[in-house]
Structures are given as structure tokens and as C-alpha cells.
Input
Amino acid sequence: MRIILAIGTGSFLGGIVRYLLSRWVQGVFLTAFPVGTLSVNVVGSFLIGMFYGYFEQYPFLSPEIRMFLTVGFCGGFTTFSTFANENFMLLRQGNFYYLGLYIFFSLFLGLLATYLGYQLTKTL
Output
């Protein structure tokens, strides 16, 4: 039950932070390109890379803390469903240029951010 509460609390907090950050970023750039969702997904990928790298170095952390940070916070912070919906909307609008950019940069930058987050913990 403690792990479920940890995940739920992390997801609650991650979802709120995602909403606020995504709206703020999208408002700054004022474009049809979904830069808000891209930003939170890349930041979330960086964080999960850091967390897993940190967990390798410090295996004594409790399962509740691990689940709170990864499944909970990062799971609530990042959003595949919004990513899929925004891609679908771009496809429906015939905006193939933004569609291709969004898919490419989401995957490339997400993987790169996870790797960099993981590597950062190895150098600290």
C-alpha cells in the first residue's frame, strides 16, 4: 500500500508540474508546434535517466522513493497520450512538416536526454 501511495503522490505532483511547465513553454513560443509537450517529455526523460543512474550508485534507497520518483513523478510529468494526440491532430491538419519534426525530436531528444541524465550521475 505504501508503494501505491508513493506512486499516486508522485503522479499527482508530476501532472501538476507538467501542466504548468507545458503551458508556460507553449505560451512563450506561440507556435502551432507542440513545444510545451516536447519540452516536458525531454525534461522528464533527463530526470528519469538521472534517477536510474542515481539508484545504481545508491541502491539503499527505498522502493517507495524509487517508485515515487520514476513511476509516479516522471510518469505523471511526461505524457505519451498527449504526444500521440498532438501527432494525430497534426496529421489531421495535414501538417506533415511539424508532424515529422515532432516525432523525430521527441524520440531523438528524449533518448539523448535520458542518456545525458544517466551519464551526469556517473560524473557526480
About this structure: Residues 2-123 form one domain.
